[in-house]
Amino acid sequence: MDACDGPDCNETLKELDLFLDAELSDAARDGIRHHLDGCPDCHSAFDFHAELKQVIHQKCQENEIPADLLSRIERCFDTDFDGDGVIG
Ligand SMILES: [Zn+2]
Questions:
Q1: How many angstroms is it from 86 CA to the middle of ligand 1?
Q2: Per-10-residue mean pLDDT for the chain, 88 residues long?
Q3: Cα–Cα distance for residue pair 41/60, rounded to 1 Å
Q4: Please, are residues 24 and 34 in contact by the beta-carbon 8 Å criterion?
Q5: Predicted local confidence at residue 1, as pLDDT
Q6: Domain boundaries, the chain
Q7: In sequence order, what are the residues at sequence separation of 6 or more whose Cβ sits closer than 8 angstroms to the Cβ of residue 21?
Q8: In angstroms, what is the span from residue 35 Cα to ligand 1's centroid?
Q9: Are 17 and 77 in contact (CB under 8 A)?
Q10: Under a CB-based contact definition with an 8 Å cutoff, are residues 22 and 79 in contact?
Q11: Are 11 and 28 in contact (CB under 8 A)?
Q12: What is the pTM of this model?
C-alpha cells in the first residue's frame, strides 16, 4: 500500500466498517471522507466494501445465502447481517 501516504491510511481502512455502520462521530466521518477524497486506494477499498455489505445484506433479507456461508461472512466482517443478534 505504498501509493497511500501517511499513517491515516491504515486508520481510514480500519474505520471503514464503523463508518459504514454509521457508528462514528460527525468529526470522525468528516476526517475519513476527507481522506477518501484525496486517496484513490482507500476510495476504491471503501466502494468495494460498501457495495459488498449492501449486497450481502440484501441477499440475506431474501434468504439467498446458505446459513453456513452467511455465518462465515458475518465472522469475516464482524457484522450481524441477518439481524439475529449473533455474529456467526
Ligand atoms: Zn488512503
A1: 31
A2: 61 75 84 90 86 86 88 83 88
A3: 29
A4: no
A5: 45
A6: 8-77
A7: 79
A8: 6
A9: yes
A10: no
A11: no
A12: 0.58
